[in-house]
Fold:
Amino acid sequence: MRRATKYGVVHCTMTDWDREVDIEEVHRWHVRRGIQSPLGSLSGYHGLIKRDGSLQLGRLSDEIGAHTPGYNDVSVSVIMVGGLYHKSGAGDNFSLPQLQRLGTVVSYWKKLYPGIEVLGHCDLIKGSKCPCLDVRSWMVSIFNNIKSKGEP
Ligand SMILES: [Zn+2]
Structure:
């Protein structure tokens, strides 16, 4: 069981923007790499946000994940499907429903883990392109907007 949650880490599947991926597929990728939950949860991530914005659960929320080496024991994670363009490679190509769902997930994390810092995989691991989204800037834009509407 995870004792501390300092970070919420956002990842992406690094798959083409027009291809849907589900948690079972990511689970198979992880099993192939020898990543498996002792509890039998799917994949090393705590959740996956599909292109259509729906959320699928992976590890239990307080289970230690397998997603960001060196930070797994102090972080919770979510993976967004996408992040690749066919021709130009890595890029921010997430759908509006995905970003809306990410906002919902982050709001939940903020309630569950007060003081949590939400960032991208690449903010913790130098040289990573994942999640192809500037999470810090996105956090400022989304959560400042929410504040200005008078919501918590
Ligand atoms: Zn990642």
Summary: The first helix runs from residue 23 to 32.
